[in-house]
Design a protein that fits this description.
With 391 residues, the chain is mainly alpha-helical. The protein is 56% helix and 7% strand.
């Protein structure tokens, strides 16, 4: 039986292990670049690391597999994943129907080939997990028949939840089950990689531009989690007490929402809360990137002020729209906050961040469905333990 507690523990361990591995790689790059310096420091593109880290993290959470992005493994999958993401984003801005581009252009042919790579990878993982699930079901039946309890604590994932909802017959004989589950885990991969990686990227960019806010976040991480070594064993409760970092994440997403523009297709005639009529087949568009910068919605909207979210009621999901609202609110909102608060805390406990060229090179890519930086996020990264007054 799927246990929420087991899944919660598995989720935290996935976030922890990938964050720590990412920090080790950043630390190694900094040390290698300044082997003889008293205070190791180097210019590092953190966005590149964040994309790899979040892909590996969501792989663990979704289906219990380390995709190896941080280790340089599964390069075909990574290349196919990146290509399909960018191609789909570009389709929104190309004239004509999608099928025309997919079937009659070199880019479309490449997209279809890369899609097969992703489908084959997903299907192979699902088949492997189905074999394990059938084995577990058999063990559970034997335990019940023999009067024994199923002793080991299983590693719960999103895929394992769906697998346990399926019957033995469906898992064994219905090919639609494999396709459906492969699509499910790929959907979680798409939703969980870019959005969180970009939130991390804009967070470190803004923290580098505001050293006073960076210091407050660092002090909170130190007070709540302790040294970098102690923080590596942080609990859910400790992470949730990082209230200032929670406010930092909210403020980052107000200014740089991971999905900067949204559109909803009207399934049937409806009336909006303000009385506006929308007809079936219409599109309703809203732009979180603009909404987060409107002085009519936010006081001093252009300023980065995490304090606006401290000790105050949570803003309406229809004003702070980074996670949408109502029945369509993001399923991963709590995971995203936990991952970002913990990851930023670990990062700040180990490194001090400063902008390169005043941060002027870090600009959003506006024609994308999500919000990456055009040329990465290059920061001057300095090991804290080697700086005067560091933690």
């Amino acid at each position: 039986m799927f246990k929420v507690t087991n899944f919660k523990n598995s989720m935290l361990e996935a976030v922890r292990s990938k964050c720590l591995k990412c920090l080790d790689l950043i630390r190694d790059q900094v040390k290698e670049s300044t082997a003889s310096a008293a205070a190791p420091t180097s210019v590092v593109d953190l966005q590149e690391y964040f994309f790899k880290m979040t892909l590996d993290t969501i792989g663990e959470i979704a289906f219990g597999q380390d995709l190896g992005a941080l280790s340089g493994k599964n390069l075909d999958f990574m290349e196919a994943f990146d290509y399909c993401q960018m191609y789909i984003s570009d389709l929104f801005f190309r004239p004509g129907p999608a099928w025309l581009w997919n079937y009659f252009t070199p880019a479309g042919w490449c997209f279809r080939a890369k899609t097969k790579v992703l489908q084959q990878y997903g299907s192979s993982l699902v088949k492997e997990m189905i074999a394990r699930e059938l084995e577990d079901k058999n063990e559970e039946s034997e335990d019940v028949d023999g009067g024994h309890e199923h002793g080991h604590e299983r590693k719960e994932t999103i895929l394992s939840y769906f697998l346990q909802k399926e019957s033995r017959e469906s898992l064994k004989h219905d090919p639609r089950t494999v396709k459906f589950l492969a699509d499910v885990i790929m959907n979680f991969q798409l939703a969980g990689r870019d959005t969180v990686a970009q939130a991390f990227s804009w967070a470190v960019h803004l923290l580098s531009l505001h050293p006073d806010i960076q210091e407050k976040a660092y002090q909170e991480a130190q007070a709540m989690l302790g040294s970098p070594t102690a923080a590596a064993s942080a609990t859910f409760d400790q992470i949730q007490r990082l209230e200032y970092l929670h406010a930092v994440v909210t403020e980052v997403l107000r200014l740089y929402p991971s999905v900067p523009k949204e559109g909803k297709w009207v399934f049937k005639d409806d009336v909006l809360p303000d009385g506006s009529h929308v007809a079936k087949g219409s599109w309703v568009l809203f732009v979180p990137y603009v909404m987060g910068r409107l002085d009519t919605l936010w006081v001093d909207a252009g300023a980065f002020k995490p304090e606006r979210h401290l000790n105050k009621p949570k803003p309406s999901n229809f004003i702070f729209t980074a996670f949408q609202g109502g029945p369509r609110i993001c399923l991963g909102v709590n995971l995203a906050y936990m991952q970002l608060q913990y990851g930023l805390a670990l990062l700040l406990l180990s490194f001090k961040l400063e902008p390169v060229n005043g941060g002027k090179e870090v600009l959003p890519l506006q024609h994308s469905t999500t919000l990456p930086s055009q040329k990465g996020v290059r920061l001057q990264v300095t090991l804290r333990h080697a700086t005067a007054g560091g933690g």
